Automatic annotation (TrEMBL):
Keyword Translocase: no
UniProt-listed Pfam families: BPD_transp_1
Signal peptide: none
TM stretches of this protein: 12-32, 79-99, 108-130, 142-164, 185-210, 247-265
Protein name in the entry: ABC transporter permease subunit
Lineage of source species: Bacteria, Bacillati, Bacillota, Bacilli, Bacillales
CDD domains xref list: TM_PBP2 (cd06261)
PROSITE patterns: ABC_TM1
Key words, A-Z: Cell membrane, Membrane, Transmembrane, Transmembrane helix, Transport
Matches recorded under InterPro entries: MetI-like, MetI-like_sf
ABC transmembrane type-1 domain ranges (all copies): 73-265
Species of provenance: Paenibacillus sepulcri
């Protein structure tokens, strides 16, 4: 019986290694291409170069205009960090309300919230733009930060809600017997237990907001307030012959925060994905 199990494990291990290599190959090519010259990028099939041009990172960081990527990274952090924090906090509060309380029209409100997941983003572009224009929020980060504070992303609300539903209500009842209020129960009991779901929501929102190009292009018009995604696109527009090695070098730098955040929180992320939506 053991002789039959070992080959299956070996084949599975080799398949996973091959699948992992396929998934990582674009990243390997990206790093290798960032060290090549423009001619070598389009004229060579090799992943690496014998004459690495590390200068592409320095030149790419200086940017193509009057601003460097230091400003663009600071701008992106100014946009991403408040958006992530407010999304997690607001989604937790709304999910807690749906999971633990009964109130009039609860099912109707829950249905309306879930139905927003079915709306294509293209349908919301024009109404949102008109709304933010009337509020004089264009060319600012308010179109990203304020909706995050109002739990407008039903996906995260539902994800946290499903996790909270899996936590036994006896925890709430025992805390109430000790004199704890609803806010104390949420902060001191449920939030620590729901850490995997909260971290998963934070990682998703961080990566989506960090890489968001479309919405940033619509709402941000001043180059001084550009994010990294817009700055990378601008680098291709400022010259007739694009410095692809510099653009790819900045692309490598741009994805590092996402990779770093994912691997630092990988334990909670995997646990959150494995449990959210299954309990209940």
């Amino acid at each position: 019986m053991k002789t039959g199990v070992l080959p299956r494990q070996t084949v599975l291990f080799l398949f996973m290694c091959l699948f992992g290599l396929v998934m990582v190959y674009p990243l390997i090519w990206l790093v290798g291409a960032s060290l090549k010259s423009n001619q070598e990028i389009f004229g060579s099939l090799s992943l690496w170069t014998s004459h690495a041009q590390w200068d592409s990172y320095r030149k790419g960081w200086m940017g193509a205009g009057q601003y460097t990527f230091t400003l663009y990274f600071i701008n992106t952090l100014k946009l991403v960090i408040p958006t992530v924090l407010l999304t997690v906090v607001s989604s937790t509060i709304v999910g807690y309300g749906f999971a633990r309380f009964n109130f009039p029209l609860k099912k109707l409100f829950f249905t309306l919230m879930i139905s927003t997941l079915m709306l294509p983003q293209a349908v919301l572009v024009i109404p949102r733009y008109i709304l933010f224009k009337n509020l004089d929020w264009l060319n600012s980060y308010y179109p990203f930060i304020v909706p995050a504070a109002l739990a407008t992303n039903a996906f995260f609300v539902f994800m946290i809600l499903q996790f909270l539903r899996g936590l036994p209500r006896e925890l709430d009842e025992s805390a109430k017997m000790d004199g704890a209020g609803t806010f104390v129960i949420l902060v001191r009991i449920l939030v620590p237990l729901a850490k995997p779901a909260l971290v998963s929501a934070a990682i998703f929102e961080f990566i989506w907001t960090w890489n968001d190009f479309f919405n940033s292009l619509i709402y941000i018009t001043s180059v001084k307030k550009y994010t990294v995604a817009l700055a990378l696109r601008m680098a291709l527009d400022n010259s007739s012959s694009a410095p692809w090695n510099q653009v790819l070098a900045m692309s490598v730098v741009a994805i590092l925060p996402c990779i770093l955040v994912f691997f630092l929180a990988q334990k909670y992320f995997v646990e959150g994905i494995a449990t959210t939506g299954i309990k209940g």
